[in-house]
Amino acid sequence: MQVHFYKYQGTGNDFVIMDNRDGRYDGLTQQQVHHLCHRRFGIGADGLMLLNNQPGYDFGMKYYNADGNEGSMCGNGGRCLVAFARKMGLQQPQLRFLAVDGPHEATMQGEDWVNLKMQDVDWVEQGPLYYYLNTGSPHFVKYVDGIQSLDVYTEGRQIRYNDRFAKEGTNVNFVQQQDNGIFVRTYERGVEDETYSCGTGVTAAALTSAGNEATTYRVPVQTLGGHLEVRFTKTGERSFTDIWLCGPALLVFEGQLIINNE
């Protein structure tokens, strides 16, 4: 099979993207997706996305983790797919699309800044040393000191594969408060390693960083791959609405290759 692909990145979270509005890539297998995302034997990416036709929406989003399995919602992926949709000719001021966790809307500022509306959150589990919530994907959030020197792979993997999470998996976010916002590093399930950034992860971290006041927040977020911003309204002790993940989404390159049909 000959594949025409595009490589995008959003704060270092990188993705292979294909225009599948004619259904030509519907038959991609888990092995093929895994191969395409492999950093030594393929293109290399944290995940793969298909831009699909979706009745009632401007497009549909289908997301695969780097291991080849279909994934839950990916925030940075959604932002990159919006930028790609614009490149493919969808020029509406506001784009509406359907992802695995439901409808989303998005706008763009300039050539590469994407504002993506996330799902409302009405449940947050709070333990003595952690938070656990779902922002389209499940996230464990732990506040730490010395985040720059933290062994995210080892500590994140221990939590992701503990007795509670081993079967379904969870993403694990380590967060440190800064003078202006938060610094977030994330171990992602499906990638099974630290990524440079995780959109649903920084969203989860930003929500847990909010104060006690039910008001509108704007949280700057630093990741290994760059800066993001999360805007939201806190409506109750553990409920949030009007959540927006905002940041850059850039085309890296495009190309063609032939992949095995097996």
UniProtKB/TrEMBL annotation:
Gene Ontology CC entries for this record: cytosol
This protein's name: Diaminopimelate epimerase
GO annotation, biological process: lysine biosynthetic process via diaminopimelate
Classification lineage: Bacteria, Pseudomonadati, Bacteroidota, Chitinophagia, Chitinophagales
Subunit structure: Homodimer.
Pathway: Amino-acid biosynthesis; L-lysine biosynthesis via DAP pathway; DL-2,6-diaminopimelate from LL-2,6-diaminopimelate: step 1/1
Gene that encodes it: dapF
Site-annotated residues for Could be important to modulate the pK values of the two catalytic cysteine residues: H139, E188
Pfam families found in the cross-reference section: DAP_epimerase
Record-linked InterPro entries: DAP_epimerase_AS, DAP_epimerase_DapF
